[in-house]
Amino acid sequence: MNLFGSDAGWTLGPKDATVGIGKRVAYPHTTFTGAGPTGRTRETAYANMPITIGVDDDGVVYFRDEYGNSLAENLISQVKKQQGDSIRNILQKKCNEITAKIESIGELHIDTPDCNVVPRYIRQEFTAAAPTRPVAHKSGVMGMLFKSRRERVETQNAEQRRQFEEDCKEWQAAKCRFEEADARRKNAIEAGIYSDIGVMEMFLEENLQSIIWPRETTISMEIVDDGGKLFVDIDLPEMQDMPNKIPSVPQRGYKLSEKEMPAAQIQRLYMRHVHGIGFRILGEIFSALPTVRSVVLSACSRRAAPSADLLAEEYLYSLRVERDSWARLEFDNLKNLDIVKAFEQFDLRRSMSESGVLMPIEPFGLNCQEN
């Protein structure tokens, strides 16, 4: 599909990602089959029956038998008495996971690649195992005595051979597709991304799509000046898309508690997230496309218009970044980077209050000649 051009764009993120912070981001499903003080997973045996203990997406501890069925209440009560410390360790681990997921929303920039390292082709091996030739069934003595028995075995062997041949064709076709794709990638990395706009678009798209985005991120791009300059527009999430609750382990009970996240904390998370999106995309562009010397990136938000049931498109920041300036960043120390202040070292248009609220701005235009 053609993803580039003045009106083209695509959505980054997992196939089932949503625009808002839902359970997939804030409450990942993880099952622990019991845990001792060390946190190592194990099964708890009770009444000669293995029991699985875990935490569901709503933060509630569940107890299941070896067949996945919920445990009877009387057994649950006894397990809680015997495994109380282990269950609380499971809850704490789940709480830590959820908190880390929330924090990661503001850390998209940490894995930004170093643009000083040019793309390099690394040969990939086709790892799918070839089909195994089936062992023919023998009719034995009964086949010698009974024709029906012999014919049934022959039919079974013929079906096995047919299926094996079909599997071989499918495997060979998959291998060919893999090798063709690998050859295209080799050509792209060694030649195409230096000379062919279409290959540059495709290669950059593949790099962006390979990132695990916490939510769908819609962008549009245009490469101009024979690959020397790139324009990017990003559709940012809204403040209400941020998680507004944080988990904690209760003193009593077997369900994670939730408390409201302070408004200032939500605002800081939002600021780090929307700036992290732009930073990561800038980094992927400069890393994937060595010929790009300059990038103009503008980020907009679709907010409700005050006098109509419509969405108004407002740009919240816009910046021009030259490769030479970008290359001076400390890519091995991005964890300590103040992602919001980092934008100020580039040619930036941004109107931001002391509390971190972004106001609408006029983005850089396509000619980018204005001061």
Could you list some keywords that capture this structure?
7-stranded mixed sheet; 371 residues; disordered N terminus; 36% helix; 3-stranded antiparallel sheet; alpha+beta
Task: Summarize the structure in short.
The protein is α+β, with helices and mostly antiparallel strands.
Question: Could you characterize what this model shows?
Answer:
With 371 residues, the chain is of the alpha+beta class. It has a domain at 24-104. 36% of the residues lie in helices and 19% in strands. The protein contains 9 helices and 12 strands. The strands form 3 sheets. A 7-stranded mixed sheet has the order 1-5-6-9-10-11-12. It has a 3-stranded antiparallel sheet with strand order 2-3-4. It has a two-stranded antiparallel ribbon with strand order 7-8. Strand 2 and strand 3 form a beta hairpin. Helix 6 (197-209) runs antiparallel to helix 7. The model is unreliable at 1-43 (pLDDT under 50).
Overall mean pLDDT:
82
Portion of residues in beta strands equals 15-25%
Report Rg: 28 Å
Biggest sheet record: 7 strands, mixed
Number of strands: 12
The tally of helices reads 9
Secondary-structure-derived class: alpha+beta
Determine the N-to-C terminus distance.
36 Å
Are there runs of 5+ residues with pLDDT below 50, and where? 1-43
What is the share of helical residues?
Answer: 25-40%
Helix and strand pattern: EHEEEHHHHHEEEEHEEHHEE
Shape: flat
